[in-house]
Design brief:
By secondary structure, this protein is mostly helical. Helix content is 71%, strand content 11%. The chain has 5 helices and 2 strands; from the N terminus they run ααααββα. 18% of the residues are buried.
């Protein structure tokens, strides 16, 4: 993924309503703006806008279903996002471990 795609992706999942929508779509397998709005504290129009954001970053796919549009989570894109988040978490864990070792070394030198 490119940096611009990464930024858009993390901006999309940074919103708690969109994260909840992804949870609902994952647990239900699919959903429409109407069905999702019945489970969220926002209007159907707001849900449709949030789904548009998720669609633009590739986290959901849409298929027509009568007068509605049916949304499904893109498992591959979600897996890439999770892998990237894990990588970022591991990098921060390593940084924090180095900082801890430096702080402990400073503390030991001050005690001597």
């Amino acid at each position: 993924m490119s940096a611009a795609v990464d930024d858009d992706l993390w901006s999309a999942v940074g919103d708690p309503i969109r994260r909840r929508m992804l949870d609902l779509l994952l647990s239900g397998g699919s959903g429409t703006a109407t069905s999702l709005s019945e489970q969220l504290p926002v209007t159907r129009q707001a849900v449709a806008k949030h789904l548009g954001v998720l669609d633009r970053v590739g986290l959901v796919h849409v298929t027509p279903s009568g007068r509605e549009r049916l949304y499904h989570v893109d498992q591959a894109q979600l897996a890439r996002a999770v892998a990237q988040l894990s990588s970022v978490g591991a990098a921060w864990d390593a940084r924090l471990h180095r900082i801890k070792r430096i702080a402990e070394a400073i503390q030991r030198s001050q005690e001597s």
